[in-house]
Structures are given as C-alpha cells and as structure tokens.
Design brief:
With about 190 residues, the protein is mainly alpha-helical. Helix content is about 40%, strand content about 10%. The radius of gyration is 20 Å and the shape is globular. The model has no long low-confidence stretch (mean pLDDT about 85).
Length: about 190
C-alpha cells in the first residue's frame, strides 16, 4: 500500500523493519504436509499443527444460524459470556464475582488488547504485562491508544503465580516515580 494513500496515523502504524518481514517469511514457508521442511512458528497466536483436528471438530458441530449474527449484541452471546463468568469465578475465585455483562468477546487477542488500551489508557499511560510475552502486544497497546507497554520480568517465576504480584508492584512503583501512570495489567 502506498504511503500517499494512508493517513498520518496509518503511516505511523505501517509494519517497519526486519521483524515484520521475517514474520511474513515464516508464514509463507510454514510447515505442513506439502512442506515438511517448513518452519513451525511458535511466535504467532495460532496452532497450525491443530488445524485439521479443529476443522474436524467444528464440522461436527450443530449450531443455530443466529450464532453467525450479532444475536445478543456486539459483546458476544449472553450464553458465552455467562459461561466465561462462571469459569472465571470457579477458577480464579475473585473477591467480587464477575458478572456476564462485564465480559466482552471479540475476534482475537489483538482486538481485545486494542479495545482495553483505548478504553482505559490515555496517550503515554502504561499497561503492565508479564514477560515472556507476544511481541505484537506493544503495537496492540500503542497503535490507536498511544499507550505504552511496560514489560515486567518474571525473574524465573511462573508469570501467572502469586509471586508475580511483587514484581508487578515493584514495576508499578518504578513507573509512577518516572511519571508514567499505569492503567492496567494484562495477564497472558
């Protein structure tokens, strides 16, 4: 796409550098039956080794055509959001129960992270996220919201453990001393 046809914001968000070019090479030379010497990428949020099994599973499903519409509205079906809140409450045991109307369902992590960043962060605000992490999170957080990703090192700890609370707290205090307002934590 020509830079002349893009807005200034569009030009700022053009993929730049060799990391994007390498990703395109990986995606075009992916492992498969017709390419046994191809690359198995662990750097994208999809599992290519499961495509056939997933297609087989989905082809067996019997579902109502209204599930292909907005149905209950643009936030995801009420039944799905109810199931998510039940799972969340059972698994995480939050102090305050999560309600179905507090969940939003979208097509992929990029969409959700972008919506969170735009919804809670102003330009130059920070969003904490534990490392290791998916490299596109930085762009997902910054592209529209103008916020910045603040990685938090796990320092050998399980990134989803209670031990990480101390790491997040330490980074939160550091960022606030440096003048960055932290608006959210993303657990991935």
């Amino acid at each position: 796409m020509s830079e002349q046809t893009l807005s200034k914001r569009g030009q700022q968000n053009l993929p730049a550098g060799t990391s994007f070019e390498k990703l395109i090479q990986v995606l075009t030379y992916s492992y498969g039956d017709n390419n046994p010497d191809g690359i198995v990428s662990l750097g994208v949020a999809e599992n290519g080794l499961m495509h056939e099994e997933l297609a087989s599973f989905f082809n067996k499903l019997d579902f109502e055509p209204n599930l292909l519409t907005y149905g209950d509205g643009p936030f995801g079906s009420r039944a799905l959001r109810s199931a998510l809140s039940s799972y969340f409450n059972d698994y995480f045991k939050p102090v305050q129960k999560a309600l179905p109307e507090q969940f939003l369902v979208a097509g992929g992590a990029t969409s959700i992270i972008d919506l969170v960043a735009v919804g809670v962060a102003d330009e130059d605000d920070g969003i904490l996220i534990g490392r290791p992490l998916y490299t596109s999170f930085a762009k997902d957080i910054s592209a529209r919201a103008g916020a910045k990703m603040v990685p938090v090192s796990a320092e050998g700890k399980d990134p989803m453990s209670e031990e990480m609370v101390e790491q997040y707290e330490k980074e939160l205090q550091k960022q606030e001393k440096e003048g960055t307002k932290i608006r959210a934590i993303i657990l991935s």
